[in-house]
UniProtKB/TrEMBL annotation:
Residues 19-150 form the Nudix hydrolase domain. Pfam families: NUDIX. SUPFAM superfamilies: Nudix. This is ADP-ribose pyrophosphatase YjhB, NUDIX family. It comes from Actinacidiphila guanduensis. Gene3D superfamilies: Nucleoside Triphosphate Pyrophosphohydrolase. Its cofactor is Mg(2+). Keywords: Hydrolase. PROSITE patterns: NUDIX (PS51462), NUDIX_BOX (PS00893). GO terms for molecular function: hydrolase activity.
Amino acid sequence: MATPKFIQDIRAKAGNILLLLPGVVMVVFDERGRVLLNRRTDTGRWALISGIPDPGEQPAEAAVREIEEETGVHAVVERVLSVFTNEPVVYPNGDHAQYTDIVLRCRAVGGEARVNDDESLDVRWFAIDELPPLGPIARGRIELALRDDPTWFAPAPPPAASEPWTP
């Protein structure tokens, strides 16, 4: 997975401390209802297409860019599915990161699914009932994309009881 230049610049100053980073994750469907997945170079596992927005880039712009860069597919963003902060990760080089993902439902409008950069070993469309092994978070995101639910987010705990509020 290529580390964006702006993160390399931050790491040069901050070292390997925990960085909270934005992420976009896309559930991309084609006209047949199949979902687009890539087999990642860094893990060898099948995954939803994902990436990191560049500074100043809107999440939808990042999503469209990442889909095309990684898979050759042209897509449009249809809606926000969820906003979710993942567990922290530690990379082999000792860098610590935690991603807050904006998960987007997207629709393919052109291009051809293929390995289009060095981040993927394989890129394919999969029927929902023929998905390869995926983790529970990815499966949950696909299930959410198939429904017309409101945007999902982890709820905050209720505020501590103190004095009653009066307008």
